[in-house]
Amino acid sequence: MSTPHPAADPAAGAAVKATDRAHVFHSWSAQGLIDPLAVAGAEGSWFWDYDGNRYLDFSSQLVNTNIGHQHPKVVAAIQEQAARLCTIAPGFAVDVRSEAARLIAERTPGDLDKIFFTNGGAEAVENAVRMARLHTGRPKVLSAYRSYHGATAAAINLTGDPRRWPSDTASAGVVHFWAPFLYRSPFHSDGEQQECERALRHLEDTIAFEGPATIAAIVLETVPGTAGIMVPPPGYLPGVREICDRHGIVFVLDEVMAGFGRTGRWFAADHFGVVPDLLTFAKGVNSGYVPLGGVALSAEIAAPIDQRPNPRGLTYSGHPLACASAVATINAMAEEGIVENAARIGEQVLGPGLRELAERHPSVGEVRGLGAFWAVELVRDRATREPLVPYAAAGEAMTAFTAACKQNGLWPFVNMNRTHVVPPCTITEEEAKEGLVILDAALAVADAYTV
Fold first, then answer.
1. What pLDDT does 6 receive?
2. DSSP for residue 114
3. 177 in the Ramachandran plot: left (φ > 0), alpha (ψ -120 to 50) or beta?
4. Distance of alpha carbon 96 from alpha carbon 257, whole angstroms
5. From its phi and psi, is residue 264 left (phi > 0), alpha (psi between -120 and 50) or beta?
6. Coil, strand or helix: which one is 423?
7. Does 312 score more than 90 pLDDT?
8. Dihedral of the CA atoms 76, 81, 84, 88 (nearest 10)?
9. Which of 30, 90, 365, 401 is the most exposed place for a label (fewest CB within 10 A)?
10. How many degrees, rounded to 5, is the angle at CA 115 between CA 110 and CA 117?
11. Distance CA 415, CA 225 (A)
12. Is 386 within 8 Å of 379 (Cβ atoms)?
């Protein structure tokens, strides 16, 4: 079992759980079938329940606590801002909003120097799509099947995973296509170069048949997150950039999950030498301490709105508490070398450790990732690559694997037949190795379900 924490108070936990079950409607869940853990507190890479059980957070909650839980500099910044100015309308100039925008613009690639703040990642994607349609005067938007972009109207239609299905209107102007993924290649490729070439040709064909003059934007997660952390092959994103330029299509990179140090760079686009026209962000910008997201705009996209009204707005755009937490987060990341730590942990601990586990466990089909952003593909059969559970389905095998992780004090991020290894970017080498030991034992449980 997980290590006890001195703040145990089972009676308080039972009361929290009872009130939750009476009144809280949870995301993405059959309400009567879930049993939410009552969390008493968190610090760094750990959180704990009211029974005193500690969990090493290999999920970063929803891959957003990049600087870990309760970072003292960010907590202090929120407290100080609340004492000085809790809220103000978006139309005013405020020091923390201006500084947050400046710090973000300093780190975005290329000339993405204008920042439109939102409340989170889905709203960022929603507004990026509207910007692209306004800029081009075109209706359609292309996105990948293996993707997740959020749960608002346009964002959920852009999404490629099954969470789209109940909300898919089939009238949102979205066309899906296959992005590269060599392990489960839809193009029957025999290597990364061929996968890249065939994926780009498929995108070209999709554009040709949809009509280039009807397409406003191509929206891609730089490195897809929940859909599987498939790092694109060399040349793919620059190839998409060239296609967009040739057809006058706005190129949108979704860095909501991959941004702000998660891949060992400030933005995942930095790995590939590509600059989009619009870049969406959220999550790691302030580690989710206060809801915040946004869109970084290129000069070309921003220029037409210089002398005409911006036809979009939000009551809480650039909320002072959120922006104060972003300023503190970005400064802490720079001062403490957190981005560099994510890169080092990925290169020296997580990557080698996960690959070593893959050699010993028949349930591991593939390991892939960057920085503090890894996926472990679990399979029934390595030869056929049959997933441990079918696409869009749960199953006993993944349930048993997940339970084994939690029983031993590791909180995993599990989606379909994968577990994602996505701890805070502040995780220490010792903590990462401790998590790998627990993961090793849980994979032995998954091995029992292989053929």
1. 56
2. E
3. beta
4. 23
5. left
6. coil
7. no
8. -170
9. 30
10. 145
11. 10
12. yes
Task: Please give the structure tokens belonging to residue 91.
Answer: 């139309």
> 333-336: long-range contacts at Cβ-Cβ below 8 A with a sequence spacing of 24 or more?
333/66, 333/67, 333/260, 333/261, 333/425, 336/426
Strands 114-118 and 293-297: antiparallel
In the prediction, which pLDDT does 196 show?
A: 98
Distances in whole angstroms, Cα of residue 271 to Cα of each of 11, 106, 186, 274: 49, 17, 24, 8
pLDDT at 1: 41
What pLDDT, in 10s, does the model give residues 332-390?
A: 999 999 999 999 999 999 999 999 999 999 999 999 999 999 999 999 999 999 999 99
- Cα 156 to chain centroid, rounded: 15
What are the C-alpha distances in Å from 165 to residues 156, 172, 259?
9, 13, 27
Please calculate the CA angle 365-366-370 and round it to the nearest 5 degrees.
160
Tell how far CA 283 is from the center of its chain. Answer: 7
Q: Are 215 and 141 in contact (CB under 8 A)?
A: yes
Both tokens of 9, joined, read 């108070």
Taking the CA atoms of 49, 54, 59 and 65 in sequence, report the sign of the dihedral they define: positive
- The whole-number pLDDT of residue 368 equals 98
Closest CA to 217 of 254, 249, 247: 249
> What one-character DSSP code corresponds to residue 358?
H
According to DSSP, the residues that pair with 140 across neighbouring strands are: 215
Select from 92, 101, 105 the least CA-distant residue to 323: 101
Name the strand (E) or helix (H) holding 16: helix 10-23
What is the spatial distance between Cα 314 and Cα 123, in angstroms, rounded to a whole number? 10
Share of the chain above pLDDT 90, in %: 94
Question: Residue holding tokens 């720079």?
Answer: 334
Q: Which of 373, 437, 387, 393 is nearest to 59 (CA)?
A: 373
Q: pTM of the prediction? A: 0.95
Instruction: Supply the pLDDT for residue 125.
Output: 98
Alpha-carbon distances, residue 245 vs 47, 130, 351, 431 (angstroms) = 46, 19, 35, 45
- At 392, the pLDDT band (50, 70, 90 cuts) reads confident
Q: How far apart are alpha carbons 54 and 5 in whole angstroms?
A: 6
